[in-house]
Amino acid sequence: MQERFGGYDKLGEVFDDKNPNVIKDLRWLLTLLINEGMDDEQEEMTEKQVGKLVTIENLAQIKSAIFEAFAKGVNGEGKEERDEPENGGSEEGNREAAQE
Which end of the chain is more exposed for a tag (fewer CB within 10 A), N or C? Predict the structure, then answer.
């Protein structure tokens, strides 16, 4: 995503209605996110398959869901359920985990 857009902080620009590639970029990103969430046994979806799921009626809902997912990921929602940090809790380990 960073190679294509420059980072998640650029999502506002990517999803701007003035972006001539907004649908194409949305389809690409949604495909990436869907495939990352799949189990290893599942066959990855293609952009063409995902594109068939995106309509004018659900476009705003998809954009909102993507923004929400990134916001939760950045803010660490759900991590409080863990007893210990994965990296042992060191500051250096926290930086390394954030970079991955």
Answer: C
Domain that holds residue 40: 2-99
Q: By the 8 A CB rule, do 6 and 12 touch? A: no
pLDDT digits (tens, 9 = 90+) for 2-38: 899 888 788 888 888 899 998 899 999 999 989 988 9
In 1-100, which ranges are E strands? none
Contact 67, 11 (CB under 8 A): yes
* Cα 31 to Cα 37: distance, rounded to the nearest angstrom: 10
Q: What is the pTM of this model?
A: 0.66
| Distance in angstroms (rounded) separating the CA atoms of residues 15 and 67 | 10
